[in-house]
Write a structure and sequence with these properties.
By secondary structure, this protein is mainly α. It contains 7 helices and 2 strands. The protein has a domain of 142 residues: Ferritin, core subunit, four-helix bundle (Ferritin). It is 76% helix and 1% strand. Helix 2 packs parallel to helix 4 and helix 5 runs antiparallel to helix 6. The longest helix is centred in the first third of the chain and has 75 residues. The protein is globular, with a radius of gyration of 43 Å. The C terminus is likely disordered.
């Protein structure tokens, strides 16, 4: 009897052993799977964040390097620097010309602005084609200096705008003519040099137009013209020596005028 009980207990123990062995194995496998999934998700997130940061940083560094590269080229190559400056100046002339068409009071100034839009717009397209052939990345905006000018002019209107705009046009085109003359004479790149020489006559014409329009915008009122001339010459007739009055009294030359003999008393401001 005792042997039978011991035998039965041994049988039951042997039968239960595989089940007990399978349960820990299954639990371990489940925990291992969950752990692996967690590590995979964490790795994916980390990789994504790292890749995004690396890509952003790389793109920023690449853009900065490109800008520095263009600046370096401009410093080392005068022709390249001329093209970059001409591109910004040309775009600025178009934007300021559009502003003049909207805000100018004088019809002459409006027409000048329209001419700037047309001529510089055409020159800008030619320069863009030339830059592509030379693998030169042109600027996409007018730069801080020209932006400041545009902002200042945008706050003006009427005669004040006309005067300020035309003064800027005189200054700009004097510099443009000088720069284009230099490039057309001393440029090393034959294509850039040829473009400068081709564009120069148009800029010289713009300078002449700016001088004429500037005089019209500023006007002659307030200068020493007609009224002061009349005031200076009216009733005067400069003579050498005095003239005796009927009573024998001597009067000053010119009927008492204090003007010096032989000098012109009326004048106009230089143009």
């Amino acid at each position: 009897m005792r042997k039978a009980i011991v035998y039965g207990t041994a049988v039951l123990s042997l039968a239960a052993a595989p089940l007990m062995a399978q349960q820990p194995a299954g639990s371990g496998s489940s925990q291992s799977t969950q752990s692996t999934g967690t590590r995979s998700q964490t790795g994916s997130q980390t990789g994504s964040q790292t890749g995004s940061q690396a890509g952003s940083q790389t793109g920023s560094q690449a853009g900065s390097s490109a800008a520095q590269g263009q600046a370096s080229k401009s410093a080392a190559n005068p022709d390249h620097a001329f093209v970059m400056e001409a591109a910004m100046g040309g775009m600025a002339e178009v934007e300021l010309g559009q502003l003049a068409k909207e805000k100018a009071q004088s019809e002459q100034v409006k027409q000048f602005g329209d001419r700037m839009v047309t001529d510089h717009g055409k020159a800008n397209e030619e320069l863009k084609t030339l830059a592509q052939q030379k693998n030169i990345a042109l600027p996409t905006d007018i730069g801080a200096k020209h932006k400041a000018t545009k902002d200042r002019l945008s706050k003006l209107s009427g005669a004040a705008f006309d005067k300020a705009y035309m003064q800027d046009m005189l200054t700009d085109h004097r510099k443009d003519v000088s720069d284009f003359q230099k490039e057309s004479r001393t440029g090393k790149d034959p294509d850039v040099k040829a473009w400068a020489a081709k564009t120069l006559p148009t800029l010289e014409e713009h300078l002449q137009l700016a001088q004429t329009a500037s005089r019209g915008a500023v006007g002659t009122s307030g200068t020493k013209t007609g009224s002061e001339s009349e005031k200076g010459t009216s009733g005067t007739s400069p003579r050498a020596g005095g003239q005796s009055s009927p009573g024998g009294a001597t009067t000053a030359p010119g009927g008492g005028s204090t003007s010096s003999p032989g000098t012109a008393t009326g004048s106009s401001s230089p143009r």
